[in-house]
Design goal:
Blueprint: E1 7-11, H1 17-25, E2 30-34, H2 37-45, E3 51-58, E4 62-63, H3 65-70, E5 77-85, E6 89-92, E7 103-106, H4 108-113, H5 115-120, E8 124-127, H6 131-140, E9 146-150, H7 152-157, E10 161-164, E11 174-181, E12 192-200, H8 203-214, E13 219-226, E14 232-238, H9 242-252, E15 256-265
Parallel strand pairs: 1-2, 1-3, 7-8, 7-9
Antiparallel strand pairs: 3-4, 3-11, 5-11, 6-9, 6-10, 12-14, 12-15, 13-14
Length: 285
């Protein structure tokens, strides 16, 4: 299907980092905003959209809890990854003075990324469902004691005034997005990233099996996140290609109660270069 015929969902409103990721990855597709991750996943599952641009993890704040908790309920496939550079700006209604600001609105993960700025300015964080949505809301209902933390694009889109630039704790900040679809993509040639969701029969034994499976291979586990529900989300990075990752997965599947391999895709440009035969550390349960 041609890109111009695709409908790609994202969580948020125009000006959000998710919308920016859509523009970067599939600029010619129709971009469909959704209020929550839940409604976006439901639309993908029933065929109303062809893909969902999904924020998976941030370099500073870690995994996005809503996505981590929802992914196991669906049998989606990851077909692409994109690392979106994140720069936060403090946006306010024109005429607002930073010294009078008492609260900051933004997505909880965004607020976590800007903790030092908020602490230095003695500003209390107020969670919002979306970064750009917080700007949009503040533009509609002005308040001289509030700022919204969002992208440069969001502030300009909604006609706001910038009180501070690049306020994230780490100036080299990015969020990793994955494109979710209902069917897997063809494995890339050369270096391949793979994702899997697993429910181990025994976490300690599974951890040992995982370490053993990647030892002496050119496959490295670059992320291993165990949720409170006992489901592990694992990323594999293989310079030997998709076949090497599939061999590792074949060895792991018998150690699980439930196993879903989410597919192969090419690495994004900001993913660090992988060292062949790097040693993965034991997971601490």
């Amino acid at each position: 299907m041609a890109q111009r015929d695709l409908k790609i969902g994202y969580q948020g409103v125009p000006g959000s980092f998710s919308a920016m990721a859509c523009t970067s990855v599939v600029p010619d597709a129709a971009h469909v905003p959704y209020h929550t991750v839940e409604t976006m996943f439901a639309a993908l599952a029933d065929g109303r959209i062809d893909g969902a641009m999904t924020a998976l993890e941030n370099r500073i704040a870690g995994v996005v809890p809503a996505v981590r908790d929802l992914l196991p309920a669906y049998r989606f496939y990851a077909t692409r990854e994109h690392c979106q550079v994140i720069r936060f700006y403090a946006w306010a209604n024109p005429g607002t003075v930073l010294e009078r600001v008492k609260t900051a609105r933004s997505h909880p993960v965004a607020l976590a990324q800007c903790g030092k700025f908020l602490q230095q300015q003695q500003i209390a964080p107020i969670p919002h469902e979306d970064t750009a949505g917080a700007v949009q809301e503040l533009a509609a209902t002005p308040d001289p004691t509030v700022v919204a933390l969002a992208s440069q694009q969001a502030g300009k889109l909604y006609g706001m005034a910038c009180l501070a630039e690049n306020v994230a704790d780490n100036k080299r900040n990015h969020t990793r997005f994955i494109m979710l679809q209902r069917a897997p993509a063809q494995p890339p040639r050369g270096r391949s990233i793979g994702m899997a969701l697993a429910t181990p029969r025994d976490p300690a034994q599974f951890s040992d099996a995982l370490q053993q499976a990647v030892t002496a291979t050119q496959v490295v586990v670059t992320r291993c996140d165990a949720g409170a529900d006992g489901i592990w989300s694992i990323d594999f990075d293989s310079i030997a290609g998709a076949a090497a990752t599939e061999a590792v997965c074949k060895a792991l599947a018998p150690h699980t109660l439930n196993w879903h391999f989410m597919g192969h895709f090419a690495p994004c440009k900001l993913r660090p270069a992988m060292r062949a035969n790097a040693t993965w550390f034991r997971y601490a349960a």
